[in-house]
UniProtKB/TrEMBL annotation:
<comment type="similarity">
    <text>Belongs to the methylenetetrahydrofolate reductase family.</text>
</comment>
<dbReference type="GO" id="GO:0071949">
    <property type="term" value="F:FAD binding"/>
</dbReference>
<keyword id="KW-0028">Amino-acid biosynthesis</keyword>
<keyword id="KW-0520">NAD</keyword>
<dbReference type="Pfam" id="PF02219">
    <property type="entry name" value="MTHFR"/>
</dbReference>
<keyword id="KW-0560">Oxidoreductase</keyword>
<keyword id="KW-0274">FAD</keyword>
<dbReference type="InterPro" id="IPR003171">
    <property type="entry name" value="Mehydrof_redctse-like"/>
</dbReference>
<comment type="pathway">
    <text>One-carbon metabolism; tetrahydrofolate interconversion.</text>
</comment>
<keyword id="KW-0486">Methionine biosynthesis</keyword>
<keyword id="KW-0285">Flavoprotein</keyword>
<dbReference type="GO" id="GO:0005829">
    <property type="term" value="C:cytosol"/>
</dbReference>
<dbReference type="InterPro" id="IPR029041">
    <property type="entry name" value="FAD-linked_oxidoreductase-like"/>
</dbReference>
<dbReference type="GO" id="GO:0035999">
    <property type="term" value="P:tetrahydrofolate interconversion"/>
</dbReference>
<dbReference type="GO" id="GO:0106312">
    <property type="term" value="F:methylenetetrahydrofolate reductase (NADH) activity"/>
</dbReference>
<protein>
    <recommendedName>
        <fullName>Methylenetetrahydrofolate reductase</fullName>
        <ecNumber>1.5.1.54</ecNumber>
    </recommendedName>
</protein>
<dbReference type="InterPro" id="IPR004620">
    <property type="entry name" value="MTHF_reductase_bac"/>
</dbReference>
Length: 316
């Protein structure tokens, strides 16, 4: 499936994001988890790309496996920092030749000691919009996703400047915006309103990460800068010494977030699953139960789409 079709009228695009593991054992575990994720019948599963190209082969390898072994469309992430246009074109051609129809086009994070503005390899690209343009030059039909930041990108001086740059990525040919994870829906909804006012008309898909351990909440929030609502922090903290209670609290929090987003007419949800299926399967199962009552909301029918998702999952 091309992401252009995932968010059409009356469609609801469920998607998952995984990363290439660093060990053989990790590979084995990911294969097991992908089997369970594929049972949710997502519109696609995306695989990340290591900064500076550190996983360039592995990203393609896992996207190939997602499509062939797990019969699920894949989206390959690609970053441009410290890569030449020629090497990026070569990689994209390989992706297209192996049947990958979707790219998540990114700049990549700056090295920790870099001050600002993007690093540049000789003949390289500095910003994601340049890579969107390059990808579009190679293919009109490929689905292109780009990153959006409800709490603004950390290098941006303010929300408006950040949105201006998001608008450039869209004008260069992006088909959908996938957001950085957030824990407070109000930040997403305000961002979506600002984006619409700024003329961005592509689907804006919220990124949700179910956090089921207090320690990872603190680490994740410091990495991506997302504000942690008191309710989430205190709930996970209170259950800190009880892994099962932490898991249940984190799953329930994500379910409430997703329900509210669906009520607000989002075109889909992109889950950051951290290579694990258990939490997201429970979340999708709950949304499937809801789906009976989710007939058209804001012109979309998540109920219909989710209901065709996986009946066995509901029975599980
Ligand atoms: P850009 O869109 O290029 O923006 C980077 C910064 O530059 C922003 O502050 C922007 O406002 C600013 N900017 C843009 N254009 C201009 C301009 N013309 N003048 C001045 N400033 C400008 N990282 C990985 O390494 N691998 C992955 O697989 C990966 N997947 C991701 C998936 C999602 C859905 C998200 C949200 C992020 C992902 N990231 C990934 C992280 C991403 O690479 C970083 O957030 C990175 O710092 C910015 O990437 P970008 O594509 O948003 O860059």
């Amino acid at each position: 499936m091309n992401i252009r079709d995932a968010y059409g009228p009356n469609r609801f695009g469920l998607s998952f994001e995984v990363f290439p593991p660093k060990s053989l054992e990790g590979d084995r575990q990911l294969a097991t988890e992908l089997e369970k994720l594929a049972e949710c019948r997502p519109a696609f599963i995306s695989c990340t790309y290591g900064a500076g190209g550190s996983t360039s082969k592995r990203t393609l390898e896992w996207c190939g496996r997602i499509q062939q072994e797990f019969s699920t469309p894949a989206m390959a992430h690609l970053t441009c920092l410290n890569s030449t246009a020629d090497s990026l074109k070569h990689w994209m051609r390989q992706a297209f030749d192996s049947g990958i129809n979707n790219l998540m086009v990114l700049r990549g994070d700056l090295p920790r000691n870099a001050s600002t503005g993007g690093e540049e390899a000789p003949g390289g690209l500095r910003r994601a919009h340049e890579l969107v343009t390059l990808a579009r030059e190679l293919s009109d039909s490929i689905g292109i996703g780009v990153a959006g930041y409800p709490e603004k990108h950390p290098e941006s001086p303010d929300d408006e400047t950040d949105l201006l740059h998001l608008g450039t990525k869209v004008r260069c040919g992006a088909d959908a915006v996938f957001t950085q994870l957030f824990f407070d829906n109000r930040t997403f909804l305000a961002f979506r309103d600002r984006a619409i006012r700024a003329g961005i008309q592509t689907p804006i898909v919220p990124g949700i990460m179910p956090v089921t351990e207090y320690d990872s909440l603190v680490r994740i929030s410091s990495l991506c800068g997302s504000v942690i609502p008191d309710e989430l922090q205190s709930g996970l903290e209170a259950a800190r010494h009880d892994p099962v209670a932490q898991f249940e609290f984190g799953v329930d929090y994500a379910i409430q977030q997703c329900r509210d987003l669906i009520r607000h007419g989002v075109p889909g949800i992109h889950f950051y699953v951290l290579n694990k299926a258990a939490a997201v399967r429970l979340i999708v199962r709950e949304l499937l139960f809801d789906a009976r009552d989710l007939s058209p909301i804001a012109g979309r029918t998540p109920g219909k789409q989710l209901a065709s998702c996986d009946k066995d999952l509901v029975a599980a």
